[in-house]
Amino acid sequence: MTFTVRPLDPFADAQLVHGWVTHPKAAFWLMQDAKLQDVEREYMAIAAHEHHDAFIGLKDGEPVFLMERYDPAHVELKGLYDAEPGDVGMHFLVAPTDTPVHGFTRAVITAVLETLFADPATRRVVVEPDVRNKAVHALNEAVGFVPAREIEKPEKDSLLSFCTRDRFEAARDRFEAARETARGVTA
Questions:
Q1: If we measure between CA atoms, which residue out of 96, 99, 106, 86 comes closest to residue 32?
Q2: What span, in angstroms and rounded, lies between the C-alpha atoms of 117 and 101?
Q3: What three-state secondary structure class fits 169?
Q4: Contact, 157 vs 150, CB < 8 A?
Q5: Mean per-residue pLDDT for 152-169?
Q6: Is the pLDDT of residue 187 over 70?
Q7: 3-state secondary structure of 53
């Protein structure tokens, strides 16, 4: 699957993103009761912040995921761990659908990590999902994240995890090799 990303427009994309972040499957996004104006304000604040960005991910020109990139030394994790040069924080949310495609979420997180690691200054990606979100923990580990420890944030208890470029590339290569083997293709 091939994806592209574009900057999120807080006004033009607010209605789309509102539907995503308030959907029952986005419970861990912590915006279940958000109004459209709340989403506009949230993403206006992100757009104005020098250490936080939001993007819409597209497949064949259609919006299919939300991605946020942030500097954990200044946003989200400031003071909660010792940030290192080259650390980049990330959030992602796959758009809800009535017709799920097997492997789609893994393809999205892979595209997100490829986007982040395309910047040579990115040494490792940092995530802090809710400790109760077992599905995302498994997905994170599958693409190379290593859990470090639980941390308390004001809004949730989180599992701080890190993914280096090498770990991501190794996980991606193992996954691709397994897919090729499953298809009966050998190198």
A1: 96
A2: 25
A3: helix
A4: yes
A5: 94
A6: no
A7: strand
Residue 139 burial (C-beta neighbours within 10 Å; 0-12, 13-18, 19+): middle
Eight-class DSSP state of 112: H
For position 185, what pLDDT does the model report?
60
Enter the DSSP assignment of 130: B
- Tokens 């982040």 correspond to 116
Q: Are 143 and 169 in contact (CB under 8 A)?
A: no
Residue 115 amino acid letter: T
Q: What is the per-residue pLDDT across 96-121, written as a single tens digit (0 to 9) for each?
A: 988 889 889 999 999 999 999 999 99
Encode pLDDT of 17-35 as tens digits.
999 999 988 887 878 888 9
Q: Are 52 and 70 in contact (CB under 8 A)?
A: yes
Question: Residue 102 is encoded by which pair of tokens?
Answer: 């097997």
**Structure confidence at residue 32 (pLDDT):** 81
Largest CA distance in the chain: 53
Q: Which candidate, 68, 171, 47, places its Cα nearest to that of 126?
A: 68
Burial of 6 (0-12, 13-18, 19+ CB in 10 A): exposed
